[in-house]
Predict the 3D structure of the following.
Amino acid sequence: MRVLGIIVEYNPFHYGHLYHLRKSIEKISPDYVVAVMSGNFVQRGEPSIIDKFARAEIALKSGVDIVIELPLIYSIQDAGGFAIGAVGILERFGVITDIVFGSESAREDVLEKIANITIVYKDQLQKEIRKGMKMGLSFPNARKMALKNLVKKLSISIDPSIIDIIENSNDILGLEYIRALNLYNSKIKFSCIKRVGAKYSDEEFKGRFSSASAVRKMLELSNYKVLDHLPEISREIIKREFDSGRGPIFYENMAPLVLGIMRTMERKDFSKFYGFVEGLDQRFSKFSRQAANLKELLELVKSKRFTFTKLRRLSLYPIFKITEWLIKESNRLGPQYIRVLGFTTKGRELLAIAKKKSSIPLISTPSLYEKVLLKVLKSKDKPVFLKKDLYIEQFKRDVMATNIYSLFYKNPRYKKGERDMRIPVIQML
Amino acid sequence: MRVLGIIVEYNPFHYGHLYHLRKSIEKISPDYVVAVMSGNFVQRGEPSIIDKFARAEIALKSGVDIVIELPLIYSIQDAGGFAIGAVGILERFGVITDIVFGSESAREDVLEKIANITIVYKDQLQKEIRKGMKMGLSFPNARKMALKNLVKKLSISIDPSIIDIIENSNDILGLEYIRALNLYNSKIKFSCIKRVGAKYSDEEFKGRFSSASAVRKMLELSNYKVLDHLPEISREIIKREFDSGRGPIFYENMAPLVLGIMRTMERKDFSKFYGFVEGLDQRFSKFSRQAANLKELLELVKSKRFTFTKLRRLSLYPIFKITEWLIKESNRLGPQYIRVLGFTTKGRELLAIAKKKSSIPLISTPSLYEKVLLKVLKSKDKPVFLKKDLYIEQFKRDVMATNIYSLFYKNPRYKKGERDMRIPVIQML
């Protein structure tokens, strides 16, 4: 039995995603396809255009058999944390045999080699990276420089210039996926598919081959014609969501909440949350009072050392109370549960198998999340990495994220919270 | 020299307010008129329709010589705390000789007698009030019942039925003003003016004699014609504010912030703030997730024991971090500074006198608030009730309140914070 695992955000689902899905299936010929998908907040540190339930539905109608939610604590982390969560879910689901990810370079050999270097020479590398960041480089750039220096110094049989391939976001993520597979001692095989069309971050609209960023940009400008360039299923469901007043939702909608919370915080209050280091506590505290909106906030806080994406993610941490403990424990112990958002008839078969193979609790009825945990905690093969408090803190964040997300729906009837507890798992039977 | 002190909210300024002002001046023939006015958040637990700067301007153009801001910590408390703040400011300003307040009954003698009973028989009364509240009565009703019983039991020479006069909000406030004057051992004389027209809480629109509530209600329904029924100065300034995109601002505008903050709080987190007792922590926590807006929130949380106004005020406490310590210390030690929002030419004369007479720091340039404090702390007649930490915590809340309020302006350019630090004291010279 071959089971393909993919890691996605589908924000929103476009032809590039469909291409990746089809090519991966062609490559692996799997019996089942499982997607781990970011929930209502994505790695760019913003709410998804439409909610996780609708995005899961699109995935299930496009060839995915099971959609699992990536817990918030991983979905709004940097590439490293994101990968620990996503790969951890696929690994602990217990039935995945292959992971395929998109890559600008599609150089599996190089990515694997670099991943190994970062593992074997971890300490030297960290020292070098810190040096680079002190010089004002952002983390990605500091790492690239550190890697190049290391490769030269150690005369590793790799052309230093090839390290430039880890410049693009999919390769950066790919590298982290490989590192995470190693971390979990996973037997899952990985392979790449070369990305076609626009770059991830390309905001220019290019028809069918536009990036998700470009599509979101058009939507933000109220140009809904852009939906015509999406696969039919995606287009229909997105239109249905918009017509019902459940989207589109943008980061800027969060301004009263993000600025409001920050304006009632003092500099020292920021230190309760992860990542407000190197003066970022001071900058966020000061500029949340000066900025009139979130765009201005990020522009004011921005420095060479931090990317906009990193700052956007950080801006969510006080809202969701993302503490250092929660991040460190989550990255040390990995995801604590598998929250199934939806499945097809085929997916249901696989779920029955995974129920026996999965090493962490499967949650398909969120209101029972504590019961499910207790059952596993009582069993004799309770895994060492499953911790009650971490499980609860991770899961609460997902429910919290949905409760916050709901506030931004245009239609008042959907602003009611606890949707996670009310919306049943999607069954596409 | 006679100086009249009045306690106002002017939300918004209507003919009833103008009548009260003129009648008070007629009664006292003062040399100067000083108003203590709630800042951007008023005693009903909501933002004011237009901001404190505009409301101060209206007051100065209508016969008031100096407008002082009532610190947030008092403006969003119940009648007792509100009075401790407002009367404390007038007392500590050092030059006020008379206070006149509006009253439904205008029975100064009865109000004074009842006030004295509540002071002399404080303990018995508190026991009785607690009993009534256990039976499910709201605080005002429990107090009324307790007072009646006490008056009967002690055969005090007062007709128990007369206690019914403390049913209306102005009499309730009046009672608290008298109690506060007593608390401060004040030499300020008080008197009443009978209110004309609609009751404070009357929401029905009745032309010139409408209550502020009725006017706000009409504005909430986008009926701006109601402004024609306000005094000219008030009408003009309100229109200017609306046209500039600085209003009207309603409680419901705060929904993303109030619901957002509560939805990320657990039941136990509420106990950090004052007043979430008797299950209110549980009710706010639960219903903030169920409610789609603030109206729904309050309706869901409401029980016989709590008034809507009390619940609305409470809903602001997590935002402004109103702790038990802050409330108790503020009510024990009284206001710590006098923040002047504006003055006329005459008011400037009085300010020069008050500078020498006032027992707490006068702040007319908010950015210098710490300097002003240090100067007084160093002086040898530093008052015992002036505490550095309380002073700072009180003042920070006022700045915070303005920074939050600014988020709700419609015009983005005014959403920038720190208006308290940028807008100079209003000089109507």
User: Anything to note?
Assistant: Residues 251-329 of chain B form one domain. Chain B touches chain A through 30 residues (CB under 8 Å).
